[in-house]
Give the backbone structure.
Amino acid sequence: MHLAGEDIATVLPEWAGQFKLADRKSAGELAKTLTAYADANMNLLQTAKLVSVHPNTIYARLQKIQEMTGMDARTYHGLTELLIAIKCWSRAKNSVQ
């Protein structure tokens, strides 16, 4: 991924672009929520504590992400695909700077 830079974005699924735009509009809160959810071992209450919001906010964000992408972050495979997309963006962004 490190060497691919921006080229990695060309192989991301169709939903990734829409998710990236929504994440930008939310000032990175969607990506932050997913990363915290993974760090909390997919525990919604722990995630809410990590990002200092009410658990219902976490649930609403996960629902929004699922509606937008079709990926259910509450499953291992869904969360993994979403995190890979986030990591690809950050790699591409860092390689440009």
About this structure: The chain has five helices and no strands. The mean pLDDT is 86.
